[in-house]
Design brief:
heterotetramer; A: about 600 residues; alpha/beta; Pyruvate-ferredoxin Oxidoreductase, domain 3; Rossmann fold; 8-stranded mixed beta sheet; 22 helices; globular; C: alpha/beta; 10 strands; about 15% strand; binds thiamine diphosphate; binds iron/sulfur cluster; binds magnesium ion
Amino acid sequence: MTQKKRISIKIAGAQGQGAGSGGQGLSKVLKRAGYHVFGVFDFMSLIKGGHSFYQISFSDQTIHANTEKFHILLCFDPQNTEETVADIETLNEGGLFFVDDAVVLKPEITVAIEKVGAKLCPIPMIRLGTEIGGNRIMGNTVGLGAIVGSLKIPFDFLDEVVQQNFAKKSKEIAASNSAVAKAGYDYGLSNFGDSFKFEMPNAKKEKTAGNMLINGNEAIAFGSYVGGCRFVSAYPMTPGTSVFEWFTKSNSKLGVVTKHTEDEIAAICMAIGAGQVGARAMTSTSGGGFCLMVEALGLAGMTEVPVVIVNAQRGGPSTGLPTRTEQSDLLFAINASHGEFPRIVLTPGTIEQCYEAGYRAHNLAAKYQTPVIILTDLLLSEQIKDTDPNFYQLPQIELGKVVSPAELDAMEEPYLRYKFTEDGVSPRALYGHPKSVHAPATDEHDETGHITEDATNRNRMMEKRMKKHESALQDIKGPEFFGAENASLTLIIWGSTYGAVREAVEIFNEDEKNKEKINLLHYSEVWPFPLEATNAALKKVKLGVCLEQNYTSQFARLLLSEAGYNVNYKLNKYDGRQFTPEEILVEVKRVFAESLVNSTK
Amino acid sequence: MTQKKRISIKIAGAQGQGAGSGGQGLSKVLKRAGYHVFGVFDFMSLIKGGHSFYQISFSDQTIHANTEKFHILLCFDPQNTEETVADIETLNEGGLFFVDDAVVLKPEITVAIEKVGAKLCPIPMIRLGTEIGGNRIMGNTVGLGAIVGSLKIPFDFLDEVVQQNFAKKSKEIAASNSAVAKAGYDYGLSNFGDSFKFEMPNAKKEKTAGNMLINGNEAIAFGSYVGGCRFVSAYPMTPGTSVFEWFTKSNSKLGVVTKHTEDEIAAICMAIGAGQVGARAMTSTSGGGFCLMVEALGLAGMTEVPVVIVNAQRGGPSTGLPTRTEQSDLLFAINASHGEFPRIVLTPGTIEQCYEAGYRAHNLAAKYQTPVIILTDLLLSEQIKDTDPNFYQLPQIELGKVVSPAELDAMEEPYLRYKFTEDGVSPRALYGHPKSVHAPATDEHDETGHITEDATNRNRMMEKRMKKHESALQDIKGPEFFGAENASLTLIIWGSTYGAVREAVEIFNEDEKNKEKINLLHYSEVWPFPLEATNAALKKVKLGVCLEQNYTSQFARLLLSEAGYNVNYKLNKYDGRQFTPEEILVEVKRVFAESLVNSTK
Amino acid sequence: MVITQERQKVTAKDFKSEQKSTWCPGCGDFGIQSALQTALINAGIAPWQVLLVSGIGCGSKLPDYINANGYMTLHGRGTTIACGAHLANPKLVTISIGGDGDSLGMGISHAVHNMRRNMDIVQIIENNEVYGLTKGQYSPTSKRGFRTTTSPEGAIEFAVNPLAIGLAAGATFIGRGYSGEPKFTADIIQQALEHKGYALVEVLQTCPSYNKLQNTDWYKAQSYKVLEENPNYNCQDPLQAFELALKDDGRYPMGILYKNDNRPTYIEQVPAYKESQTPIIERSLKIEADFFANLKNAYV
Amino acid sequence: MVITQERQKVTAKDFKSEQKSTWCPGCGDFGIQSALQTALINAGIAPWQVLLVSGIGCGSKLPDYINANGYMTLHGRGTTIACGAHLANPKLVTISIGGDGDSLGMGISHAVHNMRRNMDIVQIIENNEVYGLTKGQYSPTSKRGFRTTTSPEGAIEFAVNPLAIGLAAGATFIGRGYSGEPKFTADIIQQALEHKGYALVEVLQTCPSYNKLQNTDWYKAQSYKVLEENPNYNCQDPLQAFELALKDDGRYPMGILYKNDNRPTYIEQVPAYKESQTPIIERSLKIEADFFANLKNAYV
Ligand SMILES: Cc1ncc(C[n+]2csc(CCOP(=O)(O)OP(=O)(O)O)c2C)c(N)n1
Ligand SMILES: Cc1ncc(C[n+]2csc(CCOP(=O)(O)OP(=O)(O)O)c2C)c(N)n1
Ligand code: SF4
Ligand code: SF4
Ligand SMILES: [Mg+2]
Ligand SMILES: [Mg+2]
């Protein structure tokens, strides 16, 4: 469909069989070999068993999402007949199906292979794994080797990755894995080296080999770290855990205090405690944990403590679909906690935006002395894409209005923690200086922080705090277009749907048959709502279609309540599976057809 | 200003001095004596000291809110000079100022009395209290007696209330209080019986004596009880506590299981546990406690457990103004918890609606198997108004779709807790029958309740649950008008502002000088949003003015996001003090003037 | 529990579920499920008479795999939900079950408060000393030095001591079993079921995926039955039990570690159950006219 | 606390605040404030060196009435916020202070977990055995039978036993004072301040508004100093302390009830503080170019 040449690989297996790590390894091999790579892991809420898979696309151009069809399927779990048949059905005609040759395939599977016109590629995974590596589980490496061999990608790229991956363990383990990989490679090359009939994209090693393969959560963590984050307290919850684990895993190296707490209440409270004494602090969780943080969110809002909260959304409500993706916490995040106070909500849509959201969150929290929520989701957290390392730069660290010890020394009037100011932001002095003594209350307080119920002070304090909402607007990024300039239809989106929608826009616009063109308008920051930028952008929108991974069209409702804009169509998906470009195109065509009917009525 | 004759009394004192109980007692006396009564207590977040006051209005017609000016001020705390001066400034010219005659008044106070042209009425409160009752604190009763005497209301009404109030303690105590009251009464009658120059409303004993004086929280609790509520678990938090205490205080009499829990998480979880096994269960709290309930709200939503949550709002954010009123949790309540599920939000605006909300909440929770939130606030919780006892009837109890043990006995197919149905509601069988065995999960589940990640089932289950949102709409009450039919300006409101706005509308429309008339449109139920009724009502609105006790105009934003309706003006108050009819009228006049300017521009 | 329902003749077949377990091969949760089932069979409690309330975690999926009334709720909140259910319908034999992270981390407050109330339920803690379902972080019961993704340099906290906490909080029954000994554990659970008052049963559990060291052999070496080692052990003596709790030889005493039969249960004292023991959910909701009139009269 | 800051010469004047207290006349919180102040003075800790983190309740308003660094936060969460502050700036002498409802009801989980971590803070519990600020409901420390609005027929729960819970959870210092004896209490608080590790100080407190029975006379009769009654009391022995905790004669032992100097504190073991003890908030945020390059390189 597209001029972007892409090859897609799926590695499927029961959980614990290594589809995830295999997919990550293979992605690295492909990238080093000169391809742009995109990968996502799809898994279930259990530890061993079930059925999960890793999807990789590689290309001569940057890829933003996987498409539905595959050219290669490596299957570790043919015993999961139903799932394997479904996987086979996503193979292109002529696609390769790799499976252990020792397995007697169920008739349903062979029928399915025949039906799609795929090629069965039996490989001695367990045998070679056991014979050469001395371990059944090394059969995985055989499988990966066979794929690389069948694609005729030089073995060195695979060898390097395998050796690197196992170098931590021991030289021997690395060497035997390398030998297993080679055996698989040779087997694949000699048996199926001519079977792969699809046109390969051009490899440009010099372009991609040095690129970084980093997932969304790693990018948020990394971005936060370079943004000055030095305190992270959290409680594990998929898919928020890996942001936290990025810090814990390299604890002493980074000089960051990390605390795995007893619950999410303690997680945010510790971060607020740290924030209140001057640390750039953060916590990371998912919806259920975010629920428990909501009271303390108000504490930070009221006492004006900078703190960053990552809420990595997953399928809800309640425990819901713990390992599936959804965008259903938007209005909750914007309205969470009783009473009213300013907050900032960032909704990155790409790996790069995750990195930016990381440091921007800490800068904005410090500048406006208020909580900042990064609303990401499972899809972004599990997604890797190769990125130019030059993109990752050390950002400017903004400390906001601070009163230094020297300034305190020189100060004549008493220090006022909540001084009324033009922009609502009061200069912040830390505890520990004789002239900065203060004791703020979560009750309404006066400029010093002392409790008061006085009505005039109350009004001024509310206005002071809410002024920060207005002030922060100047820093909020407006939505960005991608695609045709004068498109007849605009997909209005936020957060992680960017990838699939972007691919859909690219594919659609490339097709000469489509005379009308489409584009997308993406929000990576949503609160305070960027009204001016929105109004300017919406002027260019002819047919507005809001696409979201939720049921109740939360962003569309936000657009209406904040900008008075009523989108023409709403597209929703809420089964926990990511939107695919193909699905989006079907919907786009339907909308075009419908709107044509309506406009001629 | 109004043809409704009203007299207003303020009893002020330091907290712990008895202004609150005095005001309640006096309200009862006035009601029994033949007046319609309205009273509110205004207090601070402390136990003893500070300055609080009770406001009473009485009339020959029903009163819905206090106005700003008073005819009588009884002051227990002249030592609080500043506050007392402010109180005096709210006296009408010719108003009476009662204070202990032993106190040497500060010059500021006497100046203030003179300035407003009030009459100083010194009474020997402490002396008579001590001499006759043997107790300083009985001086309060002297003060109340003096007021009743000066108004020439027969002593019997006062005596009866005093005797009743103290009957629980002992005959002696009752008798001595009665004697003290009489002494105060006589003193007031003989010294100031001719000082009160205002026209008294007509007393109609037969009309009001039998009326009930019940506050908003009592009405919610009472309504819930008659609605079948038999389980209440809660954690104290002003102003939600008194709903809970209504039940605890008469524990064994009512046959209700009550549990003061360790925190609000346990409070809602216990209620959900009780609800899940078949009890009509509820919890009561304020915003901060509601924050802690948000995760479990999703549990109830996902597993479809009927449960009622009273969130009595107060000044936020965070601890905020714990004893002041606000309407700032609306969007939070509607969007609380991650993911999406149906919920019902009721926003009573009067004592009567509180009673209705109580039983309706339990009926709706049972009928739609979903959480129901009653969003009330401090103003309603502290407000009493006399109501015809015939209004309070036993409601129909709706159990919703239940499968009885007999039906289970006869059932041939297996029982499915989450059976797909037309309206989304699945018949409910309780645990305890051999054929009803089930084990629902907060993970996405199939019709039996078992965990599944299947995409098709997921879609159907989401749609089944959300269908209940549509189904419940049929039961939601639309907004109601009050005031002129063809008003040029409509105050669009929700919840507790009803009283003050209604008084404002009455006063405004009575004034012959106001050629244009106004009305109000009040929402007592807001979610699922009553769209059809709203559209119908809005057709009649010429100039829509949304008035709310919050900063960010939450209801106005809801009107826009749900009905696409943009109000013309927004009026907000967020200092924790209730709107007064006078304030509203000032704003209404301003809006009229402005809109005139705008329309002629 | 004070079991008010008639005991039933039940067999393993009654508890058999169609649902496929998703536990890892070799997971100790299988042994716990079997022990629980045996205890219920031996106590004569049918699937429809019991209510298994769980939280979230690997172990909390147990109600999904057994044919019995269950409710799989929120991480850390199973115990308080179970107590709510118990107070509304004391006829159900109510068991709260969850992992160590769930019960002793997030949920420890509910455990402590309901122990001191002597709520008449059984709480089973599936203690694998790790967070299983979130892929292996250290838990409140993990040993110091335990290396996980959130403690790559080794955990630096002292573990929660469930026996000590139970004693301090006022549990009236404290037992400890092990997933590798389902029969022994079943017996403890059965006694917990028959105990009047709050019964805390910790079951040590293998987790071959994330706590590989503490495998079956390890537990064999590291645990002992308290009555075998000390036949004079008096489980009614809280001081002796506390001494056992503090004993720091790295080994786990198993069996009934504490028992107190002299405390009233919470439900015995609840005003609404004083005159009638009929569960509130079985009582009529009808309000008599004169009672209603009286309620109204209080406001006149 | 390990107090790393230079001790200061301070007097009562330094702690004097302009803010008017809103406590009831005769409230025990006055005595607690005075004891705390004396302890700080005697320990040589200035207003700007300390951080008083409180929750919500009458007692939690204390930081409003004293001139010292404070943070009045959320009901039940003071302790965990204090620990966060401590980890980010261990130089501040960090004290968590709150009522019994706050600290032992809503907040007991944070207390238990931070005790076992041996966080190097002081926790003061202002124990009036009632909820003051919400107008007199029974609390987790209220005696059985205590009649309040939420227990009009008398509380039916057994009270939390702070000493027992502290011992079970692993507090390394447990003391008890009384608001009516500010000097004695000041001494205990001072020792808590000087203790390395988690120090739990319960201060019995009169509440003339809602716990009228337990007035000054009552406490005089119902409490005793443990070392006066038993000069051989060995506060280093957890078993003896637990025995004392279980002793049910209705009287409160006061003094230092338990002390353990052999446990490492949490902060001593935190990886980020191993090489440098400079508070993280005082360190430069600059990232060296080659360190940054290395971080990026891991993803190539
Ligand atoms: C509020 C909340 N926080 C976090 C989680 C994520 N979570 C699911 S299970 C689990 C821990 C599991 O450990 P444990 O309770 O010991 O059970 P196990 O899996 O070991 O049986 C966590 C943290 C959650 N579901 N809810
Ligand atoms: C989450 C939350 N729930 C409830 C409250 C209401 N509340 C304020 S103080 C208090 C209890 C006070 O009791 P205690 O902690 O013993 O302090 P005291 O007033 O007796 O000093 C409660 C329940 C609150 N502020 N926050
Ligand atoms: S991770 Fe551990 S506890 Fe969870 S199922 Fe696997 S073995 Fe069992
Ligand atoms: S209510 Fe009790 S604790 Fe609160 S200030 Fe008054 S006396 Fe003190
Ligand atoms: Mg575990
Ligand atoms: Mg208290």
